[in-house]
Fold this protein.
Amino acid sequence: MIRRGPGSPGSSDHGSVTYPYGGAVRAPGVERGTYQLVEALQLVLQILLIITSFLVIVLVLLHKGKGGGLSDMFGGGISSGAGSSGVAERNLNRITIGLVLLWTAVVVLLGLIQRVSG
């Protein structure tokens, strides 16, 4: 946990190091660069999470309806013959599954970073 300055609520200054010029209060033995690296990694993962979330939504909406679901309610059953070919559908499935796995890994990594740093 990074606290700013010695007067943070609920913080004790025993065994911690304060950086000059209003830097972060940190536990002894932890490099300052480590916190910067973790913050940079967290920022990259958050950006990746936003991008993958948007792409998963788009790819799921691109799938053609199989019938009996909400896609039939909105006219998905009408264009059943005018859909994509079998190869394109399989490739769309593979890409969607890969992005969902990447999205899951990013969520787990962000949770681990949050747990370790907080």
Q: What stands out?
A: Residues 68 and 77 are 9 Å apart (CA to CA). The mean pLDDT is 76. The beta strands are 3-4, 17-18, 24-26.
